[in-house]
Write a structure and sequence with these properties.
5-stranded antiparallel sheet; Immunoglobulin-like; 31% strand; alpha+beta; 5-stranded mixed sheet; 2 domains; 245 residues; 10 strands; single chain; 29% helix
Length: 245
């Protein structure tokens, strides 16, 4: 009887231990404890929202629009100029050309007309090589060469151009379409003009070129005698035979 008592106590202890284990297991199933898990790479930690963006036009669409809008550019770049003598060059752009638009341009150059692509806002630029000309756009209100081109009438750019160097110099004329919202403009016209720039006329060059008229005038007025006339003719004749520098 004394041997059975420890065995019975051991059995009771084991039953209690099993019961505790079962109760703990059930409790863990009803309230699972959170465990640390690794988020997938690139997964957002919170929902993200994107604001709607306005549709943008592709370069192909813009190019097609530019090609579909034809207009006219008018300009009057002179062929000859003189160092130090200021001249005017006018450039006009229109969407609906009429012949009278070539009239009353500033400057003495012959008006030239050419078809180009046009837009609602355009820029016109006149430049030169090696500082051969001093060029100023005199009707540029915003100082950016850009102006709006209306459906009727003309838009005008007026330049003052002063030659600084003699010789056969070049002037470059560009026209661009400026598309609203686009970071760049679109070149639709580019032309190079060769201008023969002469040295300024001095008193001696004027006298050499017009001495016959001057002598005739002085003789008619009784200012020169026959001897004085013969002397002037010999002097001008010797000057005209000298080689030019």
């Amino acid at each position: 009887m004394s041997r059975l008592k420890p065995i019975a106590l051991s059995a009771i202890f084991i039953d209690i231990l099993v019961l505790i284990i079962l109760i703990s297991g059930c409790t863990g199933m009803e309230n699972p404890q959170p465990t640390a898990t690794q988020m997938p790479t690139g997964a957002p930690t919170q929902p993200t929202t994107t604001s709607p963006r306005a549709p943008t036009q592709s370069t192909t669409d813009i190019d097609q629009q530019i090609q579909d809008k034809l207009g006219t550019i008018i300009y009057n770049t002179p062929q000859t100029m003189t160092v130090g003598d200021q001249a005017q060059i006018t450039v006009r752009i229109t969407k609906n050309f009429t012949p009278d638009m070539t009239q009353n341009l500033m400057g003495s150059g012959t008006p030239q007309v050419q078809n180009i692509s046009v837009g609602d806002v355009m820029g016109v630029y006149l430049t030169s090589d090696n500082s051969a000309f001093d060029i100023t756009l005199i009707n540029d209100i915003k100082n950016d060469n850009a102006q709006r081109v209306e459906n009727t009438g003309v838009t005008e750019w007026d330049f003052e151009v002063t030659p600084l160097k003699p010789g056969n110099q070049k002037i470059y004329l560009y026209a661009t379409i400026i598309v609203d919202g686009e970071p760049k403009s679109y070149l639709v016209f580019a032309k190079t003009f060769y201008v023969n720039v002469n040295n300024p006329r001095t008193l001696s060059t004027y006298l050499e070129s017009n001495y016959q008229w001057i002598i005739t005038t002085l003789v008619s007025a009784g200012v020169l005698t026959l001897g004085g006339t013969a002397g002037l003719i010999r002097w001008f004749g010797s000057r005209s035979k000298k080689p030019r520098p």
